[in-house]
Each structure stands twice: as C-alpha cells, then as structure tokens.
Specification:
By secondary structure, the chain is of the alpha+beta class. The strands form three sheets. The protein has a six-stranded antiparallel beta sheet with strand order 1-2-3-4-6-5. A three-stranded antiparallel beta sheet has the order 7-9-10. Helix 5 runs antiparallel to helix 9. The structure holds adenosine-5'-diphosphate and magnesium ion.
C-alpha cells in the first residue's frame, strides 16, 4: 500500500475523490465521535481528528481521538471492511507503550471505523522526507519499534507492513507503531492455518514491496522474521541514508544477486547482525526483533574490541 498522503481538511484534493465514500463535514459517528480535520488519506481509509463527545459530556480526559474510517468503494470494499475490524480486534489485545492504543471499532450505516488515541507529531516517512536523520539517535527509533514487535509476536501477531509510514514519532518524543491493518496471525504460535488476511491482501493489493520480506513476496505466510527483515531495511536506511537494494524488492534483489554494502560508520558486530537480518532466508535472520535491536545500542568499549 502506498504511504497515505497527508491532506488538510477542505483541500481541493477532497473534491477530486469520486471513488471515495462521502461523509458530511462534522458528522458524529454513532452520535458520539464528531469528525474534524482529515489527518491522512490511505489506500482504503481516511484518518480524521475527532472529538469523543461522550467523554466531553463526562468531563473526562483525552476527548480528542483519531478515527480511521473505511471510505473505499467498489468491489474490494467488503475486504477493506473485514480488514479494519480485524485490525481493531487484534489491536485491542495489544497494550504496549510503543503501539498506538485502539479504543473501539464500530459501524454507523455505511461507515465502518476504528477509534484510536490521537497522536501528535509525524511519521518516520514524513520526517525522512523533511530532513536527513542519518546517524542521529537511531537506537532511539529502532529499539522501541523492536520492543513493540516483540510484544506483538509474543501474542502471535505479525505486523506484516512495517515501513517508515507506519512508525509515528510524537512531539513528546515517543515512538508508536501504527497500522496493524495487514497483521497476520502467526501460524507457529496460534496454529491458525487459514488466516484469511492473505486472501484480502491479494485482493486489495497490500504490501509495500521495498520493505516486504522475500518469503512474503514469494507468497509464503509471514512470520516474526518477516517483520525483522522490514526493521532491518529501516535501520539500514537510517544508517546509510539509502535503501539496501536501491528500493528494489527482495524478490528482484535476489534475482539480480544484489548484496547490500556495509554503511561506512557501522561497526563489524552490528553489520554482522544487520546483514543476517537482511537475508532472503527467514531462518538466517535474528528470530527476535529485540535481538536485532540489541546490536545497535551504543556499544561499550570492550565490545568494540571484539
Ligand atoms: N492514532 C493516530 N493519530 C494521529 N495520526 C494517525 C493515527 N493513526 C494514523 N495516523 C495517520 O494516518 C496515516 C494512515 O494511517 P494508517 O493506520 O497507517 O492507515 P493506512 O492503512 O491507510 O496506511 C498514518 O501514516 C498517520 O499519518
Ligand atoms: Mg499505514
């Protein structure tokens, strides 16, 4: 899926979206969540700022929320609806400081939506477009994402679409993993052999090829190691300022026999772990995201001697 385009409410862009479900401005979903400005528009859905009017009436804290609403129309709409409710179901099971909190999911007439905590800040993709952050606090981004992944994996959930557009950097300097829309039940853990996500995925055309692991592109079910591959691609971009395979997919990279070059300032210990994590074979990668992230913590002098 392409990175969503951030748009401002009332932009001329909105008028040019005939293929989208329309929604009246300031509509209150289930007479509770009053929609405000659009934050971003993705392939299947639009994310809005919204106010939880029930919480306002109760004078509770955190009345501002984010609402992700399926507004795709056409033959793949039922798949998109199924995916968003699956996302909510899985996310409600995941309570972690580095995973966006999902409060609710519901339907109001044609509007299927999930309600989340409202994050202020920008995605890593937006940050990378605005400035070079090569070499700056990389463990500060990689370690919390790895923690979030390990938590999801321990509960049998594979993210499946890890990329800079799904990592949010808040103004409070927190790192939050977003968008479990394409998350899979990990077979090894749950024994869930007929996860239909793969079917929806094929139909709605998900996956971001330059971050997807080889086995996913080859049609195999993803595992925790597939998320480790995507994390390694992100870590490589942060270290080297470019994609390990010049933005080519793992499938093309393997066919062309491409080998990533060591980023200049990366020590040998970290490079060993990084190149293993970028392997086309899942068995050769570190099996836990935390194990991968460990290699990028600032090393102590005696480790550097090894
Ligand atoms: N809880 C949130 N708070 C603030 N912005 C969000 C939130 N969730 C998503 N966004 C913004 O909306 C974009 C799209 O959301 P995402 O869940 O990644 O949907 P998609 O499936 O369309 O990629 C994100 O890249 C981010 O900019
Ligand atoms: Mg996304």
């Amino acid at each position: 899926m392409a990175d969503p385009t951030p748009v401002s409410a009332g932009s001329p862009d909105e008028a040019r979206q005939p293929d989208r479900l329309t929604i009246p401005p300031n509509y209150a979903l289930r007479r509770r969540y009053k929609l405000g400005a659009i934050i971003a528009r993705g392939g299947m859905s639009t994310v809005y700022r919204a106010t939880d009017t029930l919480r306002v009436r109760a004078r509770a804290a955190e009345c501002d929320v984010a609402v992700k609403l399926v507004d795709l129309i056409g033959p793949t709409r039922p798949d998109a609806i199924e995916l968003i409710h699956r996302e909510a179901r899985r996310m409600r099971e995941l309570a972690h400081p580095n995973i966006v909190r999902v409060f609710d999911s519901d339907v109001d007439g044609p509007y299927h939506f999930i309600v989340m905590e409202l994050l202020e800040g920008q995605t890593l993709a937006q940050r990378l477009r605005r400035e070079s952050i090569v070499g700056t606090d990389i463990p500060g981004i990689i370690a919390p994402v790895a923690d979030a992944l390990d938590c999801a994996h321990a509960q049998g959930i594979v993210h499946g679409d890890l990329k800079p557009g799904n990592i949010f950097l808040t103004t409070k300097r927190e790192v939050k993993l977003l968008d479990f829309g394409l998350a899979f039940a990990a077979r090894a853990v749950t024994g869930d052999d007929d996860d239909p996500t793969i079917v929806y995925l094929a139909r709605v055309g998900g996956l971001t090829p330059s971050f997807a692991a080889y086995e996913m592109l080859a049609g195999d079910p993803p595992s925790a190691a597939s998320d480790v591959f995507a994390l390694a691609v992100i870590a490589y971009i942060l270290h080297a300022g470019r994609h390990p395979f010049d933005r080519r997919s793992a499938l093309e990279a393997k066919a062309l026999g491409l080998q990533p070059a060591r980023p200049v300032h990366l020590d040998r210990r970290a490079w060993r772990v990084m190149s293993a994590a970028l392997s086309f074979s899942p068995a050769e990668r570190p099996q836990r995201a935390g194990e991968f992230a460990e290699a990028f913590r600032p090393s102590r002098w005696w480790q550097r001697l090894r």
